[in-house]
Amino acid sequence: MATVIVPAHNEANVIQRCLDSLVNQPDLDRIIVACNGCTDNTVQIVQQCYPQVVCLDLSIPSKVHALNEAEKHVASWPVFYIDADVALSDDAVTQVSAGMRDRQLLLAAPQPVIDVSHSPWLVRQFYKTWLRLPYIREGVVATCSFVISEEGRKRFDKFPDVISDDGFVRSHFYAHELGNIEAASVFVSAPRTLKSLIKIKSRARLGNMELKARQLGFDKPEPQYASILPSLLFSRHCISTSIYIFLVFWFRLRARQQFQNLDSYQWEVDHSSRQ
């Protein structure tokens, strides 16, 4: 049996899609929705439509605070940490739990499926290359979900106040301890505007910069994922790869500028995919 934690801040537009994908999952003992600082009707939707769910109404609008409070209600392991704007495939809980046991993984995630059907051309080109990069298949990328075993959760104390909670978690595990479970999927809606893509990818870069500066996690060599890009540049994927490289440079530049004023950083959200 497993537990699911869903942190939710003003997720009224998407929370039902997420919970509908969870409530009928076999081998799921408890669903905990940690509503944090909501000013919309997220809490009311969860309480009224999903009485079987543990709904926490927290006043502080902080994702990491929500995760820490939700963990006090964990009843069984592994624990699935799922963002409110994604959905799991049928039997994902069973398949991921079994895959972790079989492969002796401490950290895992379902395989990401990115819906770009509502995204503009430039965003679609970015994801064409992004999905071809080795680290997508190597496992547990920042795709709005991760799963930790009971043993794995002993690697760190509480979630610290950081931008990248999933990056923080991933930094506590070595390559042989983590992986994606290909039999299960997490469905992610891609940004519907280029501006929104820039926001969330800059935030991801900024989060990694913060983790490195604060020396959180293990001291591990950085993987050289960009080694595949030259071969893609000289292939039929040259256009999408060129766009990817340009946008990644943009993300990094923007993140570096934001890092200079990290104390005043305001969390950036992709509202376009939540419509």
From TrEMBL:
Sequence ranges assigned to domain Glycosyltransferase 2-like in this UniProt record: 3-136
Keyword Transcription applies: no
Keyword annotations from UniProtKB, A to Z: Glycosyltransferase, Transferase
One example GO MF annotation: glycosyltransferase activity
CDD domains (UniProt xref): Glyco_tranf_GTA_type
Pfam families tied to this protein: Glycos_transf_2
InterPro entries in the cross-refs: Glyco_trans_2-like, Nucleotide-diphossugar_trans
Enzyme Commission numbers on file: 2.4.-.-
Family, as annotated: Belongs to the glycosyltransferase 2 family.
Protein name: Glycosyltransferase family 2 protein
Protein source organism: Oceanobacter antarcticus
Taxonomy of the source species: Bacteria, Pseudomonadati, Pseudomonadota, Gammaproteobacteria, Oceanospirillales
